[in-house]
Design goal:
The protein has about 425 residues and is α/β, with parallel strands linked by helices. Helix content is about 45%, strand content about 15%. It is built from 17 helices and 14 strands. Helix 4 runs parallel beside helix 5 (about 125-140).
Length: about 425
């Protein structure tokens, strides 16, 4: 089976690598010549555990190819995935310009039936816009070529994307025709031999499922952060509360961990886009607006705790930042709480020393020379007046408190992920603050 994937970002590259691992002949296409040249030389543009090995293996086996020209790759292709970016516009709505550019390119060059599948996260109704755009280009060429459109949203977790793709808990496919259904069924069958988990829906429902799933998870995070903040005020232990409600099978334990706010490429963007979709249809997503408000406030909670500890006087303080990525096992710093706090700290006159196992290069693109980049967690804590933890990387979980206390100017830990034991920190002579 031959497929093409337009877009070699996080979703497109993972999708292409995983399909090729199952024996599909895949061509990944991107207009960025440097990125394609790098991929052809085994240089991966993102950090994702296991991805580099998978890409190099299948490229060497001749199943995974990289190109800048969709036109040259269309011969024999049965399915084209569109996995280009849909960045938020100034008003929060999803920018579909790249998606529609792909559709125009397809309409200008196809010469046989093809199934066009939207893999990007897009608002309800996008597939129909794609369909109209392709048809308009075919009409300009004065030819009639059959094609179908479908929606196949991704549910990949950064840091576990390979596992999620190779062993999905479900595959959602929105289709309009039996031919499209048969093609997608054939493509995904190798992943689902032991447990058939394809959910076929109409296209608008498939487009909505992705947004609804992310909105629910984001809601759980903001809800738990709200509860954590209240626990702190009334003297309750949020970890005990979390265990108590998580044991209810109707609720479960996932996404009930309090922290310093969600970030990344999905939740913030998708919540904004869903709110704008509702606005455009005359409806107010009041719960999601509250979710977003709670999250924006939560992102600065560590700064507020630090400021309170030092009675509002942070000028001249040296602050160590442990973790820059929005979550472990990724170098993604988009919408990361760490960046919000670093900006607040800079405005307050602090000197900042940062360390992250993999996200330093990505962070440097944003932070420039405004902070000091350190070699490890102890280097970052050198002469620091506080350590602020934002990302629960494994190497941060069991530091040597004795070494750290000698390294720091003042023994203060502000834990944004509740990974440390309050009693242990107190016994080791640290002031300690957490969420809730």
């Amino acid at each position: 089976m031959n497929i093409a994937i337009v877009g070699t970002g996080y979703v497109g590259l993972v999708t292409g690598a995983c399909f090729s691992e199952m024996g599909v002949n895949v061509t990944c296409i991107d207009i960025d010549r440097q990125k394609i040249d790098n991929l052809n030389n085994g240089i991966i543009p993102i950090y994702e555990p296991g991805l580099k090995e998978l890409v190099c293996k299948n490229a060497a086996a001749g199943r995974l190819h990289f190109s800048t020209d969709l036109k040259d790759c269309l011969s024999g292709v049965e399915i084209i995935f569109s996995a280009v970016g849909t960045p938020p516009g100034k008003d929060g709505s999803a920018d579909l310009s790249y998606v529609l550019d792909v559709a125009r390119n397809i309409g200008q060059h196809i010469n046989q039936y093809v199934l066009v599948v939207t893999k990007s996260t897009v608002p309800v109704g996008t597939a129909q816009k794609v369909k109209r755009t392709i048809q308009e280009e075919l009409d300009k060429r004065n030819i009639s070529i059959p094609f179908d459109v479908a929606s196949n949203p991704e549910f990949l977790k950064e840091g576990a994307a390979i596992k999620d793709f190779m062993s999905p808990d479900r595959v959602v496919v929105g289709i309009e025709s039996e031919r499209a259904k048969e093609l997608m069924d054939r493509l995904y069958k190798p992943f689902l031999i032991n447990n058939y988990r394809i959910i076929f829906t109409d296209i608008p429902s498939a487009e909505m499922i992705k947004y609804a799933a992310n909105a629910m998870l984001a809601t759980r995070i903001s809800f738990m952060n709200d509860i954590a903040n209240l626990c702190e005020l009334v003297g309750a232990d949020v970890n005990m509360v979390r265990r108590g409600i998580g044991s209810d099978t109707r609720i479960g334990t996932k996404f009930l961990y309090p922290g310093c706010g969600y970030g990344g490429s999905c939740f913030p963007k998708d919540i904004k886009a869903l709110i704008k979709t509702a606005d455009g249809n005359g409806y107010q997503m009041q719960v999601l607006k509250a979710v977003e408000t709670v999250n924006e406030k939560q992102k600065r909670i560590l700064f507020d705790k630090l400021q309170k500890h030092y009675n509002g006087n942070l000028s001249g303080k040296t602050i160590a930042i442990w973790g820059l990525a929005f979550k472990p096992e990724t170098d993604d710093v988009r919408e990361a709480p760490s960046l919000v706090n670093i900006n607040l700290l800079l405005e307050a006159g602090c000197a900042i020393r940062v360390y992250d196992p993999v996200a330093m290069n990505e962070a440097e693109k944003i932070l420039g020379n405004n902070v000091t980049y350190c070699s490890d967690l102890y280097d970052a804590a050198s002469d620091a007046d506080a350590v602020m933890l934002f990302t629960e990387w494994k190497e941060f979980r069991l530091p040597s408190w004795n070494v750290l206390k000698k390294t720091m100017n003042y023994p203060l830990i502000i834990d944004g992920r509740n990974i440390y034991d309050k009693k242990e920190l107190k016994e080791n002579g640290f002031d300690y603050y957490r969420i809730g």
